[in-house]
Every structure is written in C-alpha cells, then in structure tokens.
C-alpha cells in the first residue's frame, strides 16, 4: 500500500491484516481481468460470492446478522483496495453494504435483518438503492415516485435513474413518497410484476459496473416491505453518508494506482537520452500526486476514527468526499499527461481510472454540492436553495 507517511502504523494490527489480505486476493484473482471487463462493459457476477467470502460485503455491520463486524477503518481499507483495482468493484460493494445492508440494519425490522443481511453478506442476495430520478439527483426531495397504501399493500409508481446494480439486483430499496408526501423506503423484489430494470448502455465511465433505470408500474408489495424506522429524507441521506465515507477511502486507492503507473512509466520512458523521471516537470507532477495521496489518507484515517467514536457527521464526510475524489481525478488526469499516448490505452490503468473518477466525482453529491453543504455548516447560510 502506498504509504509515504507510514499512516498504517496508526492502525491496529488486525486492520492492517485485513488490508493485506484484501490486496493479496484482488491482485491474484481480479486485477489481471478488470481491464478486459471494463473494455467489454461487463461486471462478472461470479466474483460476488468470493467478495462475500473475503468479508467485503457489509464488513462493518454486526456479526449477529452474519456480517464480519469489523471497525470502520478496516471497512475503509477494503474500499481503498477495491477501488485501487476499479471503481466498479468498490461501487458494487458500496451499494450492497452502505446503501442496502446498512439501512436494513438501522431501519429494518428484526425479521428483515434476519432474513436478508446474512444472504447479502454472503453475496447470495444482491441489492440496489433506488433514490436518484431523472429530475432528482442533487435534489432528492423532488422525487416523483409514489407509494400508495391500499389495505395491507403498497402500490409503487415511478422511475429511478443511474442505479448501480439495478439489472443484477434481487431486491431494490426504493425510496418513494407516501400519501402524506413523506419519503419512505421499501424493499421491492425485482421479480415483482410491473418492475423493470433497463440497463444503461454506451457508457464511457464505470464500464465494469452495472448501471440501470428502474421503472415501477403499479408494483405491489406487502406493507411488511416497508423499512419502519426510516421516515423522511433523513433515511436515504444517512445511507449516502455511509457510502460517501467509503468513497473517501476508495478514491485514495484509485490515486495510488495512477501514481504507481506514472512512476513506473517515467522511470522506463527515455527522451533525449534520459528517463523522464529525471525531468523537473515530471517530478513536480509525481510529488503533487504523492502529497495529495498522503493528505487524503490522513483525512480518511481521521474520519474513520471519528466514525468509530461517534463524533463524525455528514459535514465531515462532505469534506473528505469533496477533497479526496477531486484530488484523485486531478492525479489521474496528470498521470494521463505523463504517459502521453500510452495514457489513452487500456494497457495501463490510467485512462480507465480517469474516466471512472469523472463519475465518482459526480455521484453521491458533486463537488459543488458538497462545497455548499460545508459552506452552510460554517456560515449558517443555506446557498443550496
């Protein structure tokens, strides 16, 4: 692991062992295939059970429901290692863990927890998170999806967009407004009558990830599908806080990947009789990369400590998501420059990470949105509306 300031020394021995095991597995079993998956626009579902066996799914959720039950720092380290390989891998695990398993664990009934969480931790049941709509990304309160209660049955109508895992999910956590206009969460089996998942094609980013449109046309689910503990936008927004925490770690992994490609290439590539690593301009770029990586890793580590202590809030997470993703994207763009023409090929990870990070910089709140969230917190003035 790239660790210029020996930040791993601040972590528990068990946490470092989890990180090392994750890296060993991903390097030996996944890394040599991911470029081909990305090129083909494929996410191979046969890797999912292995991710469950490795403890990548719901890793920081309670052991009593079949989850690994590790702390938030090793969870972050797992996200780091997944995104070092590809953002699509981290996105799958992040959606499964933070956006579906977490809300079941926090807001679900005991029956829902017992029935769903063990299967999801094993990778034998896949979930997706239906919040974003065509006209409601950064403004989820503008959602048009509705849930009408008819006796003991809810009838859902609406469309969700840009939904990771949509076409491979067994259950969709759909957020909809009830008759009173209150946002509620529903666990919807994807084989329900009237439920359709349309795979989004022609993507030039996150190609080793499934992205979908979900359409619900009079989908009927029992009242027991409701997550009773989630009422209002605070429910889905709390899930996004969990996912953004993982992204703050994952982006460090992507930055490591493009830095290592750049360093290796610059040492082997010669111009005018000298390696380009000896050139001042290239060294300046590499130093910026490792400095940004170090700052962001310290930020993620401190955020993890705060999360474990219960002092982290969504504003803290916005700082980390905003800073760590944008610095990783900047590093990927710089790496593409260092590699020159080679930087646009899939022989290196650089252009793949660069294009993926354009999406990561956008989803779970754009940099501008997180800027305004932090600005609201420090000034008391809301510029979001």
Number of strands: 9
Q: Order of strands across the biggest sheet?
A: 2-3-7-6
Give the tally of structural domains.
3
Which percent bin holds the helix content? 40-55%
> Strand fraction band?
5-15%
What summary fits the major beta sheet? 4 strands, antiparallel
- CATH class wording of the largest domain: Mainly Alpha
Calculate the terminal CA-CA distance, rounded to whole Å.
Answer: 42 Å
- What structural class is derived from the secondary structure elements? alpha+beta
So what's the overall shape? globular
C-alpha Rg (nearest Å): 21 Å
CATH architectural name of the largest domain: Up-down Bundle
Mean pLDDT: 97
Query: Which sequence of SSEs, written as H and E, runs from N to C?
Result: HHHHHHEEEEEEEHEEHHHH
Number of helical segments with 4 or more residues: 11
Poorly predicted parts: none
Look at the structure and name the CATH superfamily of the largest domain. Butyryl-CoA Dehydrogenase, subunit A, domain 3
Q: Which fold name fills CATH's third level, the topology of the largest domain?
A: Butyryl-CoA Dehydrogenase, subunit A, domain 3
């Amino acid at each position: 692991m790239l660790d210029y300031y020996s930040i791993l020394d601040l972590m528990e021995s068990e946490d470092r062992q989890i990180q090392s095991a994750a890296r060993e597995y991903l390097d030996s079993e996944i890394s040599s295939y991911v470029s081909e998956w990305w090129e083909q626009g494929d996410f191979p579902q046969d890797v999912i059970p292995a991710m469950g066996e490795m403890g990548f799914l719901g890793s920081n959720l309670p052991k009593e429901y079949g989850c690994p039950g590790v702390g938030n720092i090793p969870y972050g380290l797992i996200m780091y290692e997944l995104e070092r390989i590809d953002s699509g891998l981290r996105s799958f695990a992040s959606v499964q863990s933070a956006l579906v398993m977490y809300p079941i664990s926090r807001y679900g009934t005991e029956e829902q927890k017992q029935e769903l969480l063990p299967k999801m931790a094993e990778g034998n049941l896949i979930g997706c998170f239906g919040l974003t709509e065509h006209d409601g990304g950064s403004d989820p309160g503008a959602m048009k999806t509705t849930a009408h209660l008819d006796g003991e049955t809810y009838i859902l109508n609406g469309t969700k967009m840009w939904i990771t895992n949509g076409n491979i999910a067994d259950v969709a956590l759909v957020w909809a407004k009830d008759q009173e206009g209150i946002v509620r969460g529903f666990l919807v089996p994807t084989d329900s009558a009237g439920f359709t998942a349309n795979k989004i094609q022609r993507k030039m980013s996150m190609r080793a990830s499934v992205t979908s449109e979900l359409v619900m046309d009079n989908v009927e689910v029992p009242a027991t599908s409701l997550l009773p503990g989630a009422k209002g936008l605070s429910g889905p927004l709390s899930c996004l806080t969990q996912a953004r925490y993982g992204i703050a770690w994952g982006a460090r992994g992507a930055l490591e990947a493009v830095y290592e490609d750049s360093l290796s290439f610059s040492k082997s590539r010669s111009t005018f009789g000298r390696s380009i690593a000896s050139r001042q301009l290239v060294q300046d770029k590499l130093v910026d990369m490792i400095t940004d990586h170090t700052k962001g890793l310290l930020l993620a580590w401190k955020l993890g400590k705060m999360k474990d202590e219960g002092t982290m809030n969504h504003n803290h997470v916005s700082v980390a998501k905003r800073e760590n993703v944008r610095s990783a994207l900047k590093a990927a763009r710089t790496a593409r420059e260092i590699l020159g023409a080679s930087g646009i090929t899939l022989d290196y990870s650089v252009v793949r990470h660069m294009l993926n990070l354009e999406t990561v910089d956008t989803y779970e709140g754009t940099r501008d949105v997180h800027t305004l969230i932090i600005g609201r917190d420090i000034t008391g003035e809301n510029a979001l509306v």
